[in-house]
């Protein structure tokens, strides 16, 4: 039987067979919610196997979940009530009696209707008779779910379309089937828990418990609950592991003892059945699960099953679920712990198989089988996660294959004996028959069989596995693991007498050791490489490697002396055989080290024809003093300013081989968040620079290109002693420009040692031969610049890289308003190169706008043009000009402000002088010039006053004017000043205008109580207002006595006074006086300021004018001095009001 739940059908079987094609496939088409206890609700796809009802197959056995009938259905298409009553009902009753006799409580009655019968026939009766479906529902009721359902038989034209009644039936069917499954699974889980709790009882067997819980996993798998099925197998795995741990510390139970006694079988893991059953996504297994369980159970009961077989079976089920979950990478992840755990269990239980190497063969077959299956089901979206785990599997498969090769005498230096050949036969026999026989691809068992069949076949398969493992490790970025596999492969090739194949692996391994600074391991690898180079006659590689060993300080002196003598002999031999005196070129790394490089010159600035000395500090790791035929530092001229200099650019930093990284420069900064700080590394491009390991472990004669240049530092016949040496190299400049030191080359006979300086991060390798033009600059005084007085600034002339001859002229120009004491500045004496002179330039700015505090900005331009001396090639250079522009801000020494004061008809002018500088100015003789007919009389004669920004002064004049005054009135103020700091005196004047002068109106405001006495709080009082026209001359009165429209506004403090009426009004002043009164209440007691009255001109609206602006009423304020308020500072006394009771 299949693993799907069984559903029986009876009644009209022909009807069901007719509908099978439309009903059965639709059951698993949609997901259904499976509601379990404790809120464990899941969406499941449920399918069923339909069989005809057979009373003989009914069973009340609930100890198994497989081959169980979970739901029984009765099908009928009866539409006649009499037929139902006489026939169908009796069949249903008999059917249900048989179910109850076998304790079958899950049933479903299906009534199928035809489309023709769906439309009721015409009848004269108003009451329709109940249908058969209604009668069945009444005769066979159910409590929990609806067990009587109906649907309309789909016609031939509706087979491919949606049928609402059929969908409803399918939903009811799935609910009924899940209800039956839930009942049986709940009971089965309870029995399973009881059996697990009894695991310590005598006679308990894990094998029986395994098959029991496996049935639950099968059901979950059928319902597409793969995660729940996986949990069942994980629980079984954990339980078995715990039993083995307990048995290792004490006595093993009988069932485990039976498993460990079977030591003649180590069958290989095979997932063929599971893989072939995966025909499409979300499809379930269709094997006879019960038969399979019975066969496996018989195998273990007869003693033919071992612990490894049980582990194979358990891991097989887990892998099947993981494939259904589309997680082949997790299968690869679980494989390694599974195989290692099985080996540890055998060791802890003291189980030794009948054949040596059987466990390794079983583990190798398991690794290869997992790799084959995971590769088959892997997709492109899981390559990274998949490769991360398969890399370890390939690595362990390589180790197991190597172990078998050593055991069976299949390694390069071994030859298999008859005992070893017999061992191979036993190992292969224990693996059993190849379950994948007949497949086109190479199966794991076939690969093992071929590998152990002959020495040549073993070496071929071993190399394939090693290369796949290395490639996979490189793909996931684990280069160290790949290099270690390459180390074993190199040793394999050395044993095979193929050193040319081992060289590349050893060189890659050496690069890794040198990069990660594994000194002792690097020495061992170099010795192996030395052996390979000697066998292959690679003289250059041999010389470089032996030179590296001779300078390695981790070796003892005896070994280093031996290698150094070998260096001298090899170098001399190669020197004689070299053609055209071609030099060998090796890198500095490990042989010499450049500690310091600096420019040593007599002057801090390098100019043309100057002598430069380059000081090198070099540490020699050689054992004896050697003579360097020549030491050269070639320089390359930089054509562009942005070309790479001494400091490498960010993003292009490459650390030289063997070079030390600079220490990080860490600074602490405040973070943007509260209570946070930032650690910032300013030289991260140097600290995180890439290590250039492309030339590690191999000579650089094929990779390093020596720089050829006519400009170079040179030293000859230099003796280099062991340890630190200081070498000086000379160079004379003959051209302008910037030069970059590219290499350091030390020629030891025909051997050239080169250090690349292009990307050095330790030294400044740039030499700048400066060609600097002259520069002009202004030096401003520490105090501010003031207008109206003479001051001076300093003009600095920097000669640059060439001298300035005596008599050279600097021309000065400025914007209008600024004057120099002289427009041409003559340099009296010669200015040498890179020196500067400072000259004083006197200047004076005119007064700016005296009524504002803003200054005036003047632009000054200084231009120098002269011919320099000779250039670097001995030719006369063209005339070069230097120019500087600067903007100077001149502030006024003081600012004058004026104010018109009025007392009825009397007028006064107040002029205030405020300093704008901290420096004192003495002012005297103030005067005010008026037009003819006016007289200005200063109120108080003054002497000399000192003013600055902190101490202002003011002067007041009373103006006496004739009756007729022409407006505006222009006045001129003047005074004399003396600047003490600059010992300068001067004259200062300012003009201003008055738009209004005469007083036109006066306003009187008084506060009077309603009754006699004083004003009281919250008691009404009157504000009496009187507006009076100022009498004018008879000549003016004819025009001024005309009626005028005025507006009056009362401005009162709302916290002191409460106005009872309007606070503004308009009136016509036709006579000399206008009076008005307003009621108000004082709100507080005390001396209260009287509300102020503001008078304005009122322009009534002009209705005839089409202009919208003129059609509105407007107010025009009076100019200062035209209205005088007599009660401007008057106050009213408001005492406390008396208490009502007289107290």
UniProtKB/TrEMBL annotation:
One Pfam short name: Ig_TRAPPC10
Gene Ontology BP term (one): intra-Golgi vesicle-mediated transport
InterPro entries: Ig_TRAPPC10 (IPR056917), TRAPPC10/Trs130 (IPR045126), TRAPPC10/Trs130_C (IPR022233), TRAPPC10/Trs130_N (IPR056913)
Superkingdom classification of source: Eukaryota
Alphabetical keyword list: Golgi apparatus, Transport
Domain TRAPPC10/Trs130 N-terminal, chain residue ranges per copy: 2-332
Location within or outside the cell: Golgi apparatus
One CC-aspect GO term: TRAPPII protein complex
Predominant location: Golgi
Annotated segments matching region Disordered: 642-668
Keyword Transport among UniProt keywords: yes
Annotated ranges, domain TRAPPC10 Ig-like: 777-867
Domain TRAPPC10/Trs130 C-terminal positions: 1007-1134
Keyword Lyase found: no
PANTHER family: EPILEPSY HOLOPROSENCEPHALY CANDIDATE 1/TMEM1, TRAFFICKING PROTEIN PARTICLE COMPLEX SUBUNIT 10
Record protein name field: Trafficking protein particle complex subunit 10
């Amino acid at each position: 039987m299949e693993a799907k739940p069984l559903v029986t059908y009876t009644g009209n079987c022909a009807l069901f067979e007719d509908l099978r094609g439309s009903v059965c496939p639709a059951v698993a088409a949609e997901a259904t919610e499976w509601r379990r206890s404790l809120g464990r609700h899941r969406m499941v796809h449920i399918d069923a196997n339909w069989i005809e009802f057979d009373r003989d197959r009914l069973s009340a056995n609930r100890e198994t979940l497989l081959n169980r009938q979970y739901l029984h259905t009765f099908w009928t298409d009866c539409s006649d009530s009499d037929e139902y009553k006489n026939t169908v009902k009796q069949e249903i009753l008999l059917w249900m009696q048989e179910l109850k006799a076998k304790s079958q409580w899950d049933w479903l009655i299906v009534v199928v209707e035809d489309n023709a019968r769906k439309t009721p026939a015409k009848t004269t009766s108003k009451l329709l008779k109940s249908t058969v479906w209604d009668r069945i529902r009444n005769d066979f009721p159910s409590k929990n779910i609806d067990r009587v359902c109906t649907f309309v038989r789909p016609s031939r034209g509706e087979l491919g379309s949606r049928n609402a009644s059929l969908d409803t039936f399918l939903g009811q069917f799935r609910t009924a089937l899940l209800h039956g499954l839930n009942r049986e699974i709940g009971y089965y889980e309870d029995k399973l828990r009881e059996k697990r709790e009894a695991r310590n009882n005598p006679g308990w067997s894990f094998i029986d418990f395994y098959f029991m819980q496996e049935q639950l996993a099968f059901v979950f798998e059928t319902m597409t609950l793969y995660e729940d099925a996986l949990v069942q197998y994980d629980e079984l795995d954990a339980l078995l592991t715990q039993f083995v741990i307990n048995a290792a510390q004490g006595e093993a139970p009988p069932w485990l003892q039976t498993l460990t006694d079977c030591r003649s079988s180590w069958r290989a893991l095979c997932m063929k059945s599971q893989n072939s059953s995966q025909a499409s996504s979300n499809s379930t297994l269709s094997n006879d699960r019960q038969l399979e369980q019975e066969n496996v159970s018989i195998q273990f009961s007869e003693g033919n099953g071992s612990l490894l077989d049980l582990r194979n079976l358990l891991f097989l089920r887990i892998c099947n679920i993981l494939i259904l979950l589309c997680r082949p990478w997790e299968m690869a992840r679980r494989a390694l712990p599974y195989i290692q755990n099985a080996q540890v269990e055998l060791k802890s239980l003291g189980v030794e198989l009948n054949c040596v190497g059987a466990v390794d063969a079983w583990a190798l077959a398991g690794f290869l089988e997992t790799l084959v299956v995971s590769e088959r089901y892997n997709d492109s979206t899981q390559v990274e996660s998949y490769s991360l785990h398969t890399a370890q599997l390939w690595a362990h498969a390589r180790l197991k294959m190597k172990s078998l090769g050593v055991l069976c005498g299949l390694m390069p230096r071994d030859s298999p004996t008859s005992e070893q050949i017999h061992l191979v036969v036993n190992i292969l026999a224990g693996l059993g028959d190849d379950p994948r026989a007949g497949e086109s691809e190479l199966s794991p068992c076939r690969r093992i069989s071929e590998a152990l069949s002959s020495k040549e076949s073993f070496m071929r398969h071993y190399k394939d596995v090693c290369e796949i493992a290395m490639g996979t490790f490189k793909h996931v970025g684990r280069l160290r693991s790949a290099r270690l596999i390459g180390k074993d492969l190199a040793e394999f090739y050395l044993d095979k007498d193929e050193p040319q194949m081992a060289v590349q692996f050893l060189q890659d391994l050496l690069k890794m050791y040198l990069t990660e600074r594994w000194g002792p391991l690097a020495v061992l690898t170099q010795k192996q490489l030395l052996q390979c180079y000697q066998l292959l006659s690679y003289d250059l590689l041999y010389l470089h490697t032996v030179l590296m060993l001779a300078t390695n300080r981790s070796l003892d002196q005896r070994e280093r002396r031996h290698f150094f003598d070998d260096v001298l002999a090899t170098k001399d031999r190669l020197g004689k055989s070299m053609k055209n005196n071609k030099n060998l070129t090796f890198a500095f790394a490990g042989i010499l080290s450049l500690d310091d490089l600096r420019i040593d010159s007599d002057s801090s600035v390098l100019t043309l024809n100057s002598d430069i000395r380059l000081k090198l500090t070099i540490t020699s790791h050689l054992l004896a003093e050697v003579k360097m035929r020549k030491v050269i530092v070639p320089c390359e001229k930089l054509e562009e300013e942005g070309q790479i200099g001494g400091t490498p650019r960010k993003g292009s930093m490459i650390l030289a081989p063997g070079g030390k990284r600079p220490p990080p420069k860490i600074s602490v900064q405040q973070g943007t968040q509260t209570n946070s700080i930032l650690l910032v590394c300013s030289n991260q491009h140097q600290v995180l620079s890439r290590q250039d390991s492309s030339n590690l472990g191999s000579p650089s004669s094929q990779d390093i290109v020596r720089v050829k240049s006519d400009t170079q530092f040179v030293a000859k016949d230099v003796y280099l002693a062991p340890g630190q040496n200081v070498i000086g190299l000379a160079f004379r400049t003959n051209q302008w420009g910037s030069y970059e030191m590219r290499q350091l080359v030390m020629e030891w006979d025909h051997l050239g040692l080169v250090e690349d300086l292009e990307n050095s991060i330790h030294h400044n390798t740039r030499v700048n031969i400066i060609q600097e033009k002259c520069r002009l600059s202004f030096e401003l005084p520490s105090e501010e610049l003031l207008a109206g007085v003479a001051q001076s600034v300093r003009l600095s002339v920097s000669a640059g890289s060439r001298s300035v001859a005596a008599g050279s002229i600097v021309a000065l120009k400025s914007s209008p308003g600024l004057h120099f004491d002289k427009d041409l500045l003559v340099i009296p004496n010669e200015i040498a190169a890179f020196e500067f002179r400072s000259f004083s330039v006197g200047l004076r700015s005119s007064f700016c706008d005296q009524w504002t505090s803003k200054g005036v900005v003047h632009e000054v331009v200084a231009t120098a043009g002269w011919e320099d001396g000779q250039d670097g090639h001995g030719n006369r250079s063209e005339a070069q000009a230097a120019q500087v522009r600067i903007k100077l801000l001149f502030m006024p020494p003081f600012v004058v402000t004026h104010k018109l004061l009025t007392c009825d008809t009397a007028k006064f002018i107040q002029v205030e002088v405020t300093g704008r500088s901290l420096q004192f100015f003495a002012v005297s003789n103030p005067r005010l010039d008026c037009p003819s007919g006016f007289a200005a009389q200063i109120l108080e004669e003054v002497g000399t006053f000192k003013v600055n920004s902190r101490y202002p002064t003011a002067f007041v004049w009373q103006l006496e004017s004739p009756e007729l005054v022409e407006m505006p009135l222009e006045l001129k103020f003047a005074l004399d000043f003396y600047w003490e700091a600059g010992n300068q005196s001067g004259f200062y004047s300012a003009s201003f205008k008055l738009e209004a002068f005469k007083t036109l109106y006066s306003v009187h405001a008084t506060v009077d109580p309603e009754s006699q006495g004083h004003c009281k709080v919250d008691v009404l009082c009157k504000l009496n207002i009187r507006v009076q026209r100022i009498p004018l001359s008879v000549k003016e009165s004819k025009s001024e006595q005309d009626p005028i429209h005025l507006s009056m506004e009362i401005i009162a403090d709302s916290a002191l006074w409460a106005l009872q009426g309007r606070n503004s009004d308009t009136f016509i002043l036709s006579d000399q006086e206008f009076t008005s009164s307003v009621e108000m209440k004082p709100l507080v007691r005390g001396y209260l300021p009287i509300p102020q009255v503001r008078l304005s001109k009122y322009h009534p609206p002009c209705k005839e004018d089409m202009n919208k602006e003129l059609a509105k009423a407007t107010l025009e304020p009076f100019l200062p001095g035209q209205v005088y308020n007599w009660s401007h500072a008057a106050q009213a006394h408001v005492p406390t009001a008396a208490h009502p009771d007289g107290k």
